[in-house]
Amino acid sequence: MHQHTPSSDSLPTPHTVSGPGPGQRWSTWTSVAKGQRGPAPWPDWVVTADAALDTELGVLKTGKEADVFLIERAVPDEPGRGSLLAAKRYRRRENRQFHRAATYTEGRRSRRTRDQRAVEDRRSAWGRSVAATQWADAEFSALCELWGAGAPVPYPVQIDGTELLMEFVGRRTDDGAYEAAPRLARQRPGPAILADWFDQLYRAMSVLARLGWAHGDLSPYNVLVDTAGASGNADGGRLVIIDLPQVVDLVANPFGADLLHRDCRNVCTWFTSRGLEVDADELFADVFAQAW
Ligand SMILES: Nc1ncnc2c1ncn2[C@@H]1O[C@H](COP(=O)(O)OP(=O)(O)OP(=O)(O)O)[C@@H](O)[C@H]1O
Ligand SMILES: [Mg+2]
Questions:
Q1: Residues with beta carbon inside 6 Å of ligand 1?
Q2: Which residue range forms the structural domain that includes residue 250?
Q3: 3-state helix, strand, coil in the chain (%, to 5)
Q4: Is the pLDDT of residue 62 over 60?
């Protein structure tokens, strides 16, 4: 075969490509398979350009089974068009602890029986990394379904192995720093906002129940208060539910009702401690009935 060698004057003009610097990588958006990206239509803030870089801006929180980092995804030449992402990275390590992991996965059918066997093999290092991947997958799928159903959850941008990228819930402070939305746990709102928040949580739990699900680890620590779009002090903002790897199937899981009941107790205990008398059994009966 004849090989064509371009003459020097037909070579493209060399230009400098600014690749990833320290703390950066190429955006992983195009490198993941189609099914690993969030539900379409993609929100307009989602950066899909090949030329985008992911810049690590810091740790949001280190947790029991995962660490959450703040990432900016942006095209270097297009300032102002970047977006902020929360990267939840599941730990592969042995000390990762999922309390009641077996309770949560009961009744969850796995398509990957070989992987499943590996998970069950506690001695297998590969098993541990598959387990981390499965928790990340489980949370990504739950977020996709919930987002589609209109539940207040962060938009799931993509999943890549043990890393889940989602919408960052938070804001930019006046001095240019980024601040994650605070957890519900620390808040002390007045009566009107308190009642509104209970209503928001009730509606969110109802969306889950109508999909046949309970959160399974719902507490004031897994609810963020997003005030980014709030109008004035009388507006308590929007509650966003996070941390959903262990979503429980109310029908298939024999502990489903118990776990939903516990979610209701956690929620009602907090609201009652803040002065809104709400009854966990009533909430449970109401939400549970919506699953059928
Ligand atoms: N989308 C997000 N936007 C902003 N902050 C987030 C987001 N997701 C998680 N965080 C922050 O990271 C923390 C931990 O997230 P998450 O609860 O999902 O992980 P976890 O490993 O279960 O942590 P923990 O053990 O503390 O419950 C949250 O409390 C919140 O502060
Ligand atoms: Mg949590």
A1: 60-61, 63-66, 68, 86, 88, 154, 166-170, 180-181, 183, 221-222, 242-243
A2: 180-289
A3: 30, 20, 45
A4: yes
